[in-house]
Amino acid sequence: MSVFKRVALLRNPIVDPGDTLARLHRFLAGAGVTVLPEASCRGALDGVRFHTLEELQDVDLVIVIGGDGTLLHAARRFAPHGVPILGINLGRLGFLVDISPREMEKALRGVLDGDYVAETRFLLHAQVWRDDALLCEQLALNDVVVNNHFETRMIEFFTHIDGHYVNHERADGVVVATPTGSTAYALSAGGPILHPALEAITLVPICPHTLNHRPLVIDSSVEIAIGIDPACRVAAQASFDGQANVPLVAADRVVIRRSEENGPPAAPGRLRFLRHPPRQAALGQTARRRRAALIPSMLTQLLIRDFAIIDAAELEFGPGMTALTGETGAGKSILLDALGLVLGDRADPAALAEDAPRAEVSAVFDVGGLPAVRDWLRRHTLDRGELCILRRVVPREGASRAYINDSPVTVQRLRELGEQLVSIHGQHAHQALLHRDVQRRRLDDHGDTGALHERVAETYRAWREADAEHRRLLEAAQARDERLAWLRDMVGELDAVLAGGEDWDTLEEEHRRLAHAEALMQAAGEALRALYEDDDAVHDRLGRHAAALERVLAHDGRLAPAVEALGGALAQIEDAAETLRDYLADLNLDPERLRWVEARMGALHDLARKHRVEPRALPETAERLRRERDELERLSDALAEAAPRLARLRRDYLAAAAELSAARAAAAERLGTAVSEAMQTLGMRGGRFAVRVEPREHDPETGAGFSADGLDRVEFVVAANPGQRLQPLAKVASGGELSRISLAIQMITARSEPIPTLIFDEVDAGVGGAVAEVVGRQLRRLGEQRQVLCVTHLPQVAAQAHHHLRIRKEPAGRGVHTRVDTLDRAARVEEIARMLGGMTITATTREHAEEMLARAG
Q1: What pTM was computed for the model?
Q2: Pairing of strands 407-409, 422-425
Q3: Which residues are catalytic?
Q4: N or C: which end of the chain has fewer CB within 10 A?
């Protein structure tokens, strides 16, 4: 019997739950639990009553279906009532919602039986004050963040702890995090990770201007006040768990305290968070391991030998963002070409180093966190554990060779795997973005509509096959009567000729015998007479000699073998004579039978020529025509079955396409908002971006216009300046504007890509100054979720990287070779200074470079 009697269900309404929610409802109801779906479940469940949040305050358990954000939203609502929360993960990370839909029933069976771990976590209670007026109050399970709002300039703020002044800082913002929030936001800002049971709060500056103020870990009983400097002219905001946002102006204050200490009496301020023991997360792990958890898979090594001007290079990559910089022509593109080669690009022997017999490139990937890739490797019997090694060998002569985990594979198979591991965004990607198909794919990636898209493609394929079969039956029906009459005649004729049952080989053998019967009789008769029937036949002569030897055998026993052999010969001659007599008795000299056989064979020959087959294939031809005749005779029944099936598949396709269209429309709104916001930070204030999703012309009755991609026309439209009307992206006049818009689209949609390693090849071309710094920050943030490799010429972008590789040429013999160096802090300062000042690097340039690196954190 379940330890929980009344269970509330909440879900993320913008994420398609598939059948997870319906399965969950059936499972709980079958376990005798009273299931109370909240209104967010509307549309995913049928025939049930939905409840408001107010009606669910006295439930025993809340189950959240979605991602961590959905659970955070529920935590702020249910923590004041002391209701425990459990999460089913439909999101991407799953720090808090750790039960997967696949193992849901098994895990919940244990939870309902009392097999669970309850973690009690405190929340923060935040108040926003303007002068002496309280603007709002919020609870937060993860963190309270005060940061700049859309603008790239830093905000100025004071920090007080328990009324005591701590500092006055210029930064992008500050994070006040619980131990729960420290595993994500605090880490991304460079802060420590706290164990969930620790009674402490982290205070973490975001992108500090100097190194003077580092993250603080303070007792959870204190009160923290963040005050915006009255002289600050930058728009700021306060956000709670990254969801509820409140705009701030100069002199506003955000006061944060542990909610159970100072919160409203009705708010105990602690969240009971349930986990199933097999899935309990070890949240006390080191920061390095947590970062590895944020990036489940990545490129770890790249080894290049004798490729272009690279003799030998061994590069190691880590998580986060890695900048690749160097002078123009140093060989940055060669590195990407080498990586492209090992991912399945076309091989060109001209790319071999001079005098080298072959080039070789290997790439090592950590795929431990990519179950889909591991499944792909297992299906192709290529799985060797958590590391996957791709290798490509290009000889100067002959075809290239490809290997996955040391097993030979085709280049197509190598490319198929590579597409799941690395996504390359080139500097000319904005040109590809002008194509409608690319725009649609970008929207689908951002909306995570892969499952919906596949369902549309599957129903389309099924409909197309059924439509082709229906058309074939209709065409057959049009010519049915004439064809059926012909088939009946042919089958009747074949059945009449084949009715005797003699096969062609038997007739051929009988014909040869009858045609040569006289010669056969003469030869057999002469042999019989010579062996046995003539006066001096062989049998008589051998008999006499055998009898003579047998009479003298008593005088010398050595004659016994000869006597025995002659006796055997006599017996064999008698057998041969008997066989010849039987053969002569059965031999038929009937000329009538010969004429019948010849006539029969002639008829089969004529029929075989008519059907253009060999005579011996006539029975198979008859069977084939008989099946076609039977099918045509049943054609009316087949058409009666095919038409409803086609109509059903047409309805299935239209329903799936409509669902995909709705998902695209929702994703289009989100993408339009996100890109529009990004445009404000990329020097295009007042610009707007939108995605038009319009129905493509089609006929729902005939299926004209159906496609595996659905029924939508997707088009990116933009207004680069305030007051302009939205126009198709292809009509944007300024190349610089198009480049920046493209960059915004690429970085935003890249967050939705399932690919673990993203490469940006000079996508920041055409931007500079403050805009370049914004681009760098966004790439850095993206690096907290994916491994990001960025080839750039901009110091503002390179300074934001977690790691830095410098590519340079150096003399080698009579030529030059490319060298790759991993830069430490001092070397990074020099490289950033070179990018800032060119050939002349001054102390001021170095100070500027040091400042940029310090600001990046």
Answers
A1: 0.47
A2: unpaired
A3: 68
A4: N
